[in-house]
Description:
Elements: H1 5-20, H2 23-30, H3 34-48, E1 53-54, E2 61-62, H4 64-92, E3 96-102, H5 114-125, E4 129-135, H6 138-146, E5 152-155, E6 164-179, H7 194-198, E7 203-205, E8 223-225, H8 228-236, E9 241-245, H9 246-254, E10 258-260, E11 267-277, H10 284-296
Parallel strand pairs: 3-4, 3-5, 7-8
Antiparallel strand pairs: 1-2, 5-11, 6-9, 6-10, 6-11
Helix pairs in contact: 1-2, 1-3, 1-4, 5-10
GO molecular function: DNA-binding transcription factor activity; transcription cis-regulatory region binding
Protein name: Transcriptional regulator
Family: Belongs to the LysR transcriptional regulatory family.
Amino acid sequence: MITEQADLxxxxxxxxIVEAGGFAxxxxxxxxxxSTISSYVTALETRLGFTLCKxxxxxxxxxxEGQVVFEEAHRLFKSVAQYETKMRALRDKLSGTxxxxxxxxxxxxxxxxxxxxxxxxxMERAPDVTLNVVTYPPNDLLREVVTDNxxxxxxxxxxxxxxxxxxxxxxxxxxxxxxxxxxxxTQPDDEIDIDEIRRYRLIGRKSWLGRDLKEFAIAxxxxxxxDMEAEARLILSGAFLGYLPEHYAKQFVDAGRMxxxxxxxxxxKVTFQASLDDTKQPDPITNLFLDMLIADFAGDAA
Length: 302
């Protein structure tokens, strides 16, 4: 019975000889001398207990038993090849669930559109992965990354947390706005200063930790928000002033419902980053998405 690795080697040599059409013809394929090839076939015949082929002046020919051995060996090695292919496919196959966290209202940002490109490329490479996409305000998104509910978070994060890795992706510009019903809406910028703005109600964004109020030197905001839609609603009410991403506010500006105030002075630029827990070994799915994301945003961080 053929069971040992050495037996499989002898079978492979025999298979090559038959497919080449004889001992001499198989020399170049096996890179062996005629005497060595002959000794291998003799060893296989001894192992099996019968003659496999006729060789000599009459030429090379298989015996009936040799024909059976050739056919079975061919099937055996074909099966082994199929097994190796399937095992390789299982090893290389990416499956499971990847949870990506995004912050709200970035879909209108042209700079963020490459996230969609990354998603498309990722799903083409890993079609069996279930992609779970969630949206949170920045503080909540940071918490979800820390607690490992999200594998990769994409956001302008309010602070850095020890153990998290941050990869810069792209920049976002925020301007200061008032709504069409606000007293400042019709007032020219050259008639507006910081003291004038301080007379009105100002919005504080929780994730900015007071940075949006620093310019105005006030103790606390008149309203707080956790996301851009909430801030936009307050500004559109005409009762509040506050910052919005320029790309997000554009729809309201174009409709005549908002205007920028002092854009040369009241401008904040933030950097969007990809963040993940660096204390854990990233799995292949997370690594693949992150590598694609970094490649798609290469050179864009500001």
